[in-house]
Amino acid sequence: MHFGDLTPVEQRVLGCLIEKRWTTPEQYPLSLNALRLACNQSTNRDPVTHYDEHTVREAAQRLSKYGLTRLASGHNSRAIKYRHLAEEGLGLDREQLAVLGVLLLRGPQTPGELKQRSERLAPMPTLDDVERVLGELIRRSHVVRLERRPGQKEERYAQLLGGAPGVADASSGSDEPVRPEAPEMPPPSPTPVAASLTRAPLPPTQPPVRPEVDVTALEARVAALETELAQLREQLADLLS
């Protein structure tokens, strides 16, 4: 089994287990229902998915055959739970796993985005730290640097556990094809009457000042609440049974 053959759902399951181990350690390992909810979160995920329990269970079982996950019994619970074995299976440390996990969950990103989004998993103080980790992952053939397109200021990186990124990912970062721009046509010269009726341009208006929002903290709170909700549902199911 080559890790470059992981399917999208296998990548999502592995990324969620890596993320939840450090963001919600009190609820890790994850039950099947909690793992499904983690896969289908509306925050910290790109794209947002709607996997059912059967799909998630099969992906987790396949990952166990690859040596990347295993079953675990939860504390004071008879429910089957899952944990990842990515340290042993991939030979990576916490910082490397944090960056790889964010790439698994959110697709190609710049070093600045990776630094901000991996803070909850393994804080890296500077961009140099992130780029060092990316270099290590590239040497292990787990990450690739994408070609920078004209107009892009920063390089983007993609994970390779699901194979080489597609053309759309490598070029534009979206599934939408890049359409050539139509040539600009010179504007027609105004007639004397139109010129006399042309009004003076209005002074530019200042854009409204938007308050700064700590997106990382907000996403973390939403993710924690979703996981907590999954745990409460399990407890309620146990009581009803």
Description:
Helix 1 crosses helix 2. It contains 10 helices and 5 strands, in the order H-E-H-H-E-E-H-H-H-H-E-E-H-H-H. Residues 170-183 and 193-198 have low confidence and may be disordered. Strand 2 (69-73) and strand 3 form a beta hairpin. It has one domain: Winged helix-like DNA-binding domain superfamily/Winged helix DNA-binding domain (Arc Repressor Mutant, subunit A, Orthogonal Bundle). It is mainly alpha-helical and 241 residues long. The strands form 2 sheets. Strands 1-3-2 form a 3-stranded antiparallel β-sheet. It has helices at residues 8-23, 32-39, 53-65, 86-90, 94-106, 111-117, 127-139, 167-171, 192-197, 215-240; strands at 30-31, 69-73, 80-84, 143-145, 157-159.
Task: Offer a few descriptive terms.
241 residues; mainly alpha; Arc Repressor Mutant, subunit A; 3-stranded antiparallel sheet; 10 helices; 5 strands; globular
Estimated share of beta-strand residues: 5-15%
Helix content: 40-55%
CATH architecture classification = Orthogonal Bundle
State the CATH class: Mainly Alpha
Structural class: mainly alpha
Q: Can you summarize the main beta sheet?
A: 3 strands, antiparallel
CATH third-level topology: Arc Repressor Mutant, subunit A
Number of strands: 5
Spatial arrangement of strands, main beta sheet: 1-3-2
How would the global form be characterised?
A: globular
N-to-C series of helices and strands:
HEHHEEHHHHEEHHH
CATH superfamily: Winged helix-like DNA-binding domain superfamily/Winged helix DNA-binding domain
What is the topology?
Blueprint lengths: L7 H16 L6 E2 H8 L13 H13 L3 E5 L6 E5 L1 H5 L3 H13 L4 H7 L9 H13 L3 E3 L11 E3 L7 H5 L20 H6 L17 H26 L1
Helix pairs in contact: 1-2, 1-3, 1-5, 2-10, 5-7, 6-7
